[in-house]
Amino acid sequence: MSEKVLMKGNEAFAEAVIRGGARFYFGYPITPQSEIPEFMSRELPKRGGKFLQAESELGAINMAYGCGAAGGSGFISSSSPGIALMQEGMSFLCGAEVPVTLLNVSRGGPGIGSIQPGQADYNQVTRGGGNGDYRIPVFAPASIQEAVDILYECPSIADKYRNPVMVLADGLMGQMMEPVMLPEEKHALTSEEISTAKPWALSGSKKGTRSVVKSLRLQPEVLEEHVEHLFEKYAAMEKELERVEVENLEGAEVVFVAFGTMARLAREAMELLEAQGVKAGLIRPISLWPYPYGAFEQIPATAKAVISVELSMGQMLQDINLGVKGRVPVKLIHRVGGMLPTSLEVVEKTKKILEEVR
Amino acid sequence: MKPVFTVTEGMLPVSTSYCPGCTHGVAHRIIMETLDEMGLLGDTLGVAPIGCSVVAHQFMNVDMCEAAHGRAPAVASGIRRVHPDKVVFTYQGDGDLASIGMGEIVHAAARGEKFTTFFINNGIYGMTGGQMAPTTLIGQRSTTCVDGRTREQAGMPLKICELLATLDGPAYIERVALNSPAHIRAAKKAVRKAFEYQLAGKGFTFIEMLSICPTNWGLTPPKAMQWLEENMMAYYPLGVYRDVEKEAQ
Fold it and tell me: Under a CB-based contact definition with an 8 Å cutoff, are residues B214 and B22 in contact?
C-alpha cells in the first residue's frame, strides 16, 4: 500500500532509490546532501543492502562502478564539486556500459563556491566533464514527489540502457519538506540471481561464460564500432526519456523556461503577471538531457519574449536558443551565488524585458 | 601415461602482449595456477589496473573488469559488497597503486577489505615509456630523471609493504621477488597464503612482487634479474610484514 508521509527532500530521495531496487550506496559527506549517506547508513543494513562510506568522491564513483560491474544496483549522491570529481568515473562507466543511479544536490560555484542552492551545474551534467563521447540522462524534478517518482525509476532505467542516470536537484529541494506518496518497493536482485539476470556482469565464470567489463579498446576500428554502438543507445534514450511540462502557452505574451525549483518560482510569477494583465506561459524541461527542443515548437505567435529563469549565468540559454531557433528574443532572469530571486523580482524584470522588446 | 606438466586453465591459450623477459607473465601464471590448484577459477573476480597489465583480462581466465588509474581497490570494494562469497583480487603496478592510487589502497587496507592485492613493483612506469615511479630507486635512471633519481629533486622511494604494515586492517602482507626459480616458488606460496586468508575472512591481503622491466631499464633480462637482486632487494627487503595468524600465536 502507498502511504503519504511528510519527508525531508534528501531522505525522500534516498528512500525512493531503495524502493526502486538499489541496495548498495557509496558516498562521501558534502553539503547540502549529507543526510543521504546518513539515511543510507541507517536504512540499507536493515533492508538487505550495504552502505560504504568512501574515502573520497573518486572512491565513491569507483566503488559504484565495481558494484555495477558485478551486477549490483548501486546509488551514489553528491553535490557540485563532488560531482566534478566523479566525472572521470562517469566517462568510465559509460564506456564500460555499467549502470548506476546518481543524484546531484547542486550548490553554488565555481570552485568551492557556496553551500547555498545553485543551478550552475547545468553544463557539467548535460555536457559532461569526463573525456570521450558519452551521454548521461539527467532529470530535474521540481517537487519532492516528482523527485521520488523519477528516482524510483532510475535503477531500472540505468539497467535497461546499462548506463549511469542522474537526477539533478538543488540544495533547496534537498533541505525542504513536502508530503509524498512513496511507491511500492521493487524486488532487488540477490547475488545468486545476478548471473542469470545480468550475464554480462562479473559473478564468477562457473556460470559457463567469462565476463569482462572494460572501457579500453586499443584498436581504432573496434573503439569506433563501440562508440557507434553507444550512440545507438543514446539515440534510443533521446526518443524514450525526453520529458517536459508545458503550461499556459496559448496566447502567452511571454514564455518562461525553468527547471527544478526555479520552475516553481516562475509559476508564481506567471500568476502575479496574469493578475496584472500579462499572459505568461511556462516550458519546464524535466529531462535536461535529452533536452525537449520539440516543446519550443509550441511557442505561440503571440509571444514577445522567451525568458530563462535560472540560478546560473544562463547556462541553459544555449539549449533554449536551439529550441527557439531565433523566432523570438531569448532573455535571462537570474541570480547566482546562492541568492534566489523572489517572484516579485521576476515579475518586475519580466515587465522591463517586455518594454524593451515591444 | 601421466603428464608431468600441463598448462594451467587459469591462463587463456593466447600470447601475452608483454615484452620479452617481462615478469608480468610469471606473476599472472603463479596467481592463476594457484587459483586453479585451489579450484577457485569459477569463483574468482579480478580487477585489472591502468598500465601494461590493463590487458590482464585478456590472459587471466576469470571474470574481470578494468579500473581507472589507481582506483582498483575502490572497484574491488564495490564488487565485494555485491559478491561476499567470491574470491576478489586487484592486480596493480607501482604507478597505479603507489602514486595515483595511494588513497584507495590505504583506505581499502585500513578497512580490512576482504580481497587480495597483487602489487607489481618494477620501479618504473612501463606502459608510458619508462618515467620515474614512486618506487624508482635513488640513482636509478628513467626518462624523467635521466641522470638518476635524486632525493633533492624527487624525494625518496615509497616502501608500500612497510607503510601498509603500520595499519591494523591488513591480515597478511608479504614482499616477494620474481627474479629466480627459488624466489618464484616462494612467491607462489605467498599467493596461496593470501587467497587462503581471504577465504577464511581474515581481512585484507597484500603481496608485493619485485619485478623487472628490461625494456625500460635498458638491460637484458638476465642483467635485469641481477640488478633487481643487487639493488631493489637492498631497499625493498623480502619478507612477511604482517601475518595476523603468527601475531595471534
Answer: yes
| B198 near A CB under 8 A | no
- Tell me the average pLDDT across B227-235: 98
Cell of B13: 591459450
Rounded to a whole number of angstroms, the distance from the CA of A132 to the nearest CA of chain B is 14
CB contact under 8 A, B83 and A55: no
For residue A2, name the pLDDT band (cuts at 50, 70, 90). low
Same fold, A3-240 and A246-357: yes
Residue pair A80/A118 in contact (Cβ under 8 Å)? The answer is yes
Name the closest residue on chain B to residue A70, using Cα atoms: B79
Q: What residues of B are in contact with residue A210 (Cβ under 8 Å)?
A: 61-63
Per-residue pLDDT, averaged over A11-40, amounts to: 97
Q: State in words which class domain B24-248 has.
A: alpha beta
- Do B47 and A214 count as a contact with CB atoms less than 8 A apart? no
End-to-end CA distance of chain B: 45
Instruction: Flag whether residue B86 sits within 8 Å of chain A, measured between CB atoms.
Output: yes
d(CA A76, CA A145): 20
Give the three-state DSSP class for B51.
Answer: coil
Beta strands A50-53; A244-247: pairing state: unpaired
pLDDT of A1 reads: 47
- CB contact, 8 Å: A206 with chain B? yes
Q: What is the ipTM of this complex?
A: 0.96
* High-pLDDT (> 70) share of chain A, %: 99
Residue B232 has pLDDT above 90, yes or no: yes
Nearest-CA distance A94 → chain B (Å) = 13
Closest CA to A230 of A91, A123, A128, A104: A91
pLDDT at B248: 87
The yes/no answer on whether domain A3-240 falls in CATH 3.40.50.970 is yes
Label the pairing between strands B87-93 and A244-247: unpaired
B176 closest CA partner among B34, B54, B7 = B34
- Cell, residue B45: 573476480
Asked if A62's CB is within 8 angstroms of B78's CB, the reply is: yes
- Cβ contact B239:B174 at 8 Å: yes
Mean pLDDT, chain B, as a whole number? 97
Asked if B55 has any chain A CB less than 8 Å from its own CB, the reply is yes
In chain B, the residue whose alpha carbon lies closest to the alpha carbon of A66 is B75
Question: How far is it, in rounded angstroms, from Cα A106 to Cα A117?
Answer: 6
| pLDDT tens, position by position, A178-226 | 999 999 999 999 989 999 999 999 999 888 889 999 999 999 999 999 9
Cβ neighbours for B199, distance < 8 A, ≥ 6 positions apart: B87
Domain boundaries, chain A: 3-240, 246-357
Across the interface, which of A92, A191, A216 has its CB nearest the CB of B82?
A191
What is the bridge-based pairing of β-strands A74-78 and A100-106? parallel
Q: Do residues B73 and B103 lie in contact, with contact meaning Cβ atoms separated by under 8 Å?
A: no
Assign domain A246-357 to its CATH architecture.
3-Layer(aba) Sandwich (3.40)
Distance (Å, whole) CA B115 – CA B195: 8
Residue in the structure block whose three cell numbers are 585484507:
B204
Instruction: Quickly tell me which residue has 525537449 as its cell.
Output: A292
* pLDDT for A339: 94
